[in-house]
Amino acid sequence: MLGVGFLPTTASTAATYILPLSVIGLGMGLAFAPATIEGLRVIPPDQAGVASGTLNTARQLGGSLGAAVIGTLVDGKHGDAFVTVSRPALALVAALIILAAALASRMRGPDAPRAPRTPANPPPAGAAAP
Hints:
Layout: H1 15-40, H2 48-73, H3 82-105
């Protein structure tokens, strides 16, 4: 994201952003599923639905607020100053991503207990396990 902040010039077109933003989108797509799995791993199975809904709501709210804030910063009222305004705005996004990653890495150590894995439909008592 920080690199995208240095792309805009007065001669930039949509084609300038296709490759960098495609790479960012691919990275986000590859990161969300494992991050969600890891984030929900410690949740007991009976609370997994609530935790998943809360996580997805927070992700959607964060994305909406982020788009609103950045959109406000680079709203087009600045005319030719878009290049000047967009670099600090995208640098702010990059800084917030780095801050969020740093905070997330400190949330749980490797020795944190994990919820025991249980099958969704355990076999009846006395039945042989498959």
